[in-house]
């Protein structure tokens, strides 16, 4: 990697105010100055100011930067002397430009990996900013010549995920910028779904000067109720207790893709030993797998497995389409630069915006396995098949982003958008990484991230650097569950708790070689131990409903705990084979896992009907159970014949309705498919049965 800075930064992007000497522009024109903010290689910048739409070199109004370069220099990996200084702010102009007209800043970076930023001022007032996170050899930035209004927030990016599930909270979030002339002390954001009523959120007690970018998170999540699609509209609703004076940059609308709710079938595994289906092994390129995850777009029906492989080659992924079916296909992939960006990977976590992230188990991804300055951490990738693991993006492969302050990472979990949680094996704690807006395939601008370190959660990694310690976010409750392999325990952290404190020290400072947007320790954190006994080598973890599942690498068991009853152990699923690492509840509610010892991907199917319990509180007895085509009921005399009965399948869909009086003559279940069902008596008391034909 070519560019590595050596200082820490914990400031939002800020366009420095510039008050130029006033020039006399003709009527109909306004005075424009442009501030150029160079990176650590200012000599690689060449730019032109042109009328909107003009190509580079066509009627340029101004040409700046290193004149040894040209319009053809983009991405040529040359670095001639001359031009601007490094890490400098240079003001060009003033220019008299037509009021209301649009102009383009065309920026060339001769190496192709670190664009300069630009701030535009009109009549001495901040008007627009384009920072260096848009990373290509060639970039075009468009601005309009107009005097800024006092109150104006621009919605830069909507960071609400595209993919969601029924009954799973969707957090409305984004990145905005103060493009008005007043400092922002309060603002409001509203969202609506399907053209319905807006839900308003107001943020107070803030202080954003003109030019500052900031993140927002609506305090009321949206809860989808129906499978399908919905249009989500997010807009800036107010500034400083008043209206936003420029509504043209306030809103964003996108289509949300809503999948059915993942059914909670965990209790079915407690009735009887499940059926184990070996879905893949070495014949499908499973090579020491450590983790797995499902793509959130159900129409793709993809399951991804990540392989440890070797340091000399880097890790790899295997993507299964239609996993576990007769139509299953698989695709083994290794990125051209995986030796650095996916070195001895320990975990994989799918995003809700068609990205995913991986955690490296290596000490230093540049090959230095001893010494004080390791350089590695989580990597962001695209799940787009036209991008991931494809050649043509340069020497840094197809990666979208990377941070470098977590050597020997143990596992990674997705929260929302490009925000992930990671178990840090070298620093023995937990870290939140928000990549925010990525830098694009194969680039190396890594300064846009927010990193928060939680030293309160102490973990001990496997000294042999093989068995991992995974983590998972319960998106219903915002609890992060963390496996501590060496401590033989599980902890949890309230992800919404804590306040930012000082800059981390120790190893985490030595390996920080980039100017991160924010890099801080966290204090006043809410966390607790939830499992402290009964585990030998805990590794994988997942959560659904009120069930926490933990895999034990030593015993080959998956242990189930009740999160609503003091984490009481509900039971254990015995696979009979030690070596389990990552586990995952699939979209069908079934449990999947990878075994690193025998390099397999396995699905566990609940045993149909074996030992299905009946709730004694109902007084009802069903027989036969399992049933084939008709089920008889013995009903206590104290139940009215008008008492309503409703039968639900595993997804919560009503399949049959009846009354006690009708059920006395038996219920015809021949139209029901094989599987477990729940009958509600008068909408409250429940009894379970299974259909097996």
Describe the fold and architecture:
Helix content is 2%, strand content 44%. By secondary structure, it is mainly beta. The strands form twelve sheets. A six-stranded mixed beta sheet has the order 26-27-28-29-34-33, with no helix packed on it. It has a five-stranded mixed beta sheet with strand order 10-16-15-12-13, with no helix packed on it. A four-stranded antiparallel beta sheet has the order 4-1-6-7, with no helix packed on it. The longest helix has 4 residues, at 338-341. Mean pLDDT is 90; it is low at 1-21 and 609-616.
Number of domains: 4
Gyration radius, to the nearest Å? 29 Å
Helix content: under 10%
Strand content: 35-45%
- The side-by-side strand order for the widest beta sheet comes to 26-27-28-29-34-33
By DSSP, the count of extended strands is 49
CATH architecture of the largest domain: 6 Propeller
- Main β-sheet description: 6 strands, mixed
Number of helices: 3
Amino-to-carboxy terminus distance: 60 Å
Global shape: globular
Task: Please give the CATH class of the largest domain.
Answer: Mainly Beta
Low-confidence spans: 1-21, 609-616
Instruction: State the secondary-structure class.
Output: mainly beta
Mean pLDDT: 90
> What is the CATH topology classification name of the largest domain?
Neuraminidase
Structure summarized in a few sentences:
The protein is mainly beta and 693 residues long. Helices cover 2% and strands 44% of the residues.
Question: Which helices and strands appear, and what pairs or packs with what?
Answer:
Blueprint: E1 29-37, E2 45-51, E3 62-65, E4 89-98, E5 102-109, E6 117-122, E7 125-130, E8 138-144, E9 153-158, E10 163-165, E11 173-178, E12 184-193, E13 199-208, E14 213-217, E15 228-239, E16 251-259, E17 275-280, E18 289-294, E19 302-310, E20 314-321, E21 329-333, H1 338-341, E22 345-350, E23 355-360, E24 379-382, E25 401-402, E26 409-416, E27 419-424, E28 429-434, E29 450-454, E30 471-474, E31 479-484, E32 489-494, E33 499-500, H2 507-510, E34 518-523, E35 527-531, E36 538-544, E37 547-552, E38 557-562, E39 568-574, E40 580-585, E41 591-595, E42 600-605, E43 621-623, E44 630-634, E45 644-648, E46 654-659, H3 660-663, E47 667-668, E48 675-681, E49 685-691
């Amino acid at each position: 990697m070519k560019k590595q800075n050596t200082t820490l930064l914990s400031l939002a992007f800020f366009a420095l105010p510039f008050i130029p000497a006033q020039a006399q522009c003709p009527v109909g024109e306004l005075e424009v100055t442009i501030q150029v903010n160079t990176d650590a290689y200012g000599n690689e910048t060449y730019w032109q100011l042109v009328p909107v739409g003009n190509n580079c070199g066509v009627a340029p109004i101004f040409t700046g930067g290193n004149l040894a370069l040209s319009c053809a220099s983009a991405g040529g990996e040359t670095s001639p002397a001359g031009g601007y200084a490094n890490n400098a702010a240079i003001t060009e102009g003033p220019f008299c430009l037509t009021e209301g007209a649009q102009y383009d800043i065309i920026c060339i970076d001769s190496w192709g990996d670190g664009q300069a930023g630009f701030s535009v001022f009109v009549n001495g007032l901040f008007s627009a900013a384009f920072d260096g996170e848009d990373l290509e050899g060639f970039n075009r930035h468009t601005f309009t010549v107009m005097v800024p209004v006092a109150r104006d927030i621009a919605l830069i990016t909507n960071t609400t995920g595209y993919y969601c599930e029924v009954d799973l909270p969707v957090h409305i979030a984004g990145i905005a910028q103060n493009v008005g002339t007043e400092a922002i002390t309060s603002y409001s954001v509203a969202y609506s779904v399907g053209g319905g009523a807006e839900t308003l959120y107001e943020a107070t007690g803030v202080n954003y000067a003109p030019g500052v970018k900031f993140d927002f998170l609506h305090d009321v999540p949206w809860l989808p109720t129906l499978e399908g699609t919905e249009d989500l509209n997010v807009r800036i609703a107010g500034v400083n207790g008043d209206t936003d004076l420029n509504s043209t940059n306030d809103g964003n609308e996108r289509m949300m893709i809503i999948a059915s709710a993942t059914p909670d079938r965990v209790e079915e595994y407690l009735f009887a030993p499940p059926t184990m289906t070996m879905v893949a092994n070495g014949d499908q390129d499973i090579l020491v797998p450590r983790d797995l995850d499902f793509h959130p777009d159900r129409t793709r029906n993809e399951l991804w497995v990540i392989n440890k492989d070797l340091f000399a080659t880097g890790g790899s992924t295997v993507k299964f389409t239609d996993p576990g079916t007769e139509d299953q296909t698989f695709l083994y992939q290794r990125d051209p630069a995986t030796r650095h960006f996916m070195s001895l990977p320990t975990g994989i976590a799918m995003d809700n915006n068609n990205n995913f992230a991986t955690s490296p188990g290596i000490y230093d991804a540049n090959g230095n396995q001893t010494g004080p300055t390791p350089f590695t951490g989580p990597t962001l990738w695209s799940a787009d098949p036209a991008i991931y693991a494809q050649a043509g993006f340069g020497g840094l492969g197809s990666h979208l982003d990377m941070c470098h302050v977590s050597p020997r990472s143990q596992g990674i979990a997705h929260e929302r958008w490009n925000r992930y949680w990671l178990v840090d094996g070298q620093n023995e704690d937990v870290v939140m990484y928000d990549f925010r807006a990525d830098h694009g395939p194969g680039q190396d601008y890594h300064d846009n991230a927010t990193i928060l370190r939680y030293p309160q959660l102490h973990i001990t990694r496997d000294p042999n650097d093989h068995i991992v310690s995974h983590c998972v976010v319960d998106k219903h409750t915002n609890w992060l569950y963390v496996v501590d392999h060496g401590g033989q325990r599980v902890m949890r952290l309230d992800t919404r708790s804590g306040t930012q404190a000082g800059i981390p020290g120790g190893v985490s400072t030595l390996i920080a070689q980039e100017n991160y947007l924010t890099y801080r320790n966290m204090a006043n954190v809410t966390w607790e131990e939830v499992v402290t006994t009964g585990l030998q080598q805990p590794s994988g973890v997942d959560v659904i409903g009120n069930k926490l599942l933990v895999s034990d690498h030593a015993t080959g068991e998956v242990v189930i705990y009740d999160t609503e009853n003091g984490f009481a152990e509900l039971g254990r699923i015995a696979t009979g084979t030690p070596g389990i690492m990552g586990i995952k509840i699939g979209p069908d509610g079934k449990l999947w896992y990878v075994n690193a010892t025998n390099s397999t991907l396995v699905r566990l199917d609940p045993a149909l009907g074996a030992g299905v319990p009946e709730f004694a509180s109902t007084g009802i007895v069903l027989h036969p159970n399992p049933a084939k085509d008709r089920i008889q009921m013995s009903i206590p005399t104290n139940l009215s014949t008008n008492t309503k009965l409703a039968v639900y399948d595993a997804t919560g869909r009503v399949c049959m309705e009846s009354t006690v009086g009708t059920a006395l003559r038996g219920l015809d279940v021949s139209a029901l498919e094989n599987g477990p069902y729940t009958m509600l008596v008068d909408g409250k008391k429940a009894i379970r049965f299974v259909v097996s034909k």
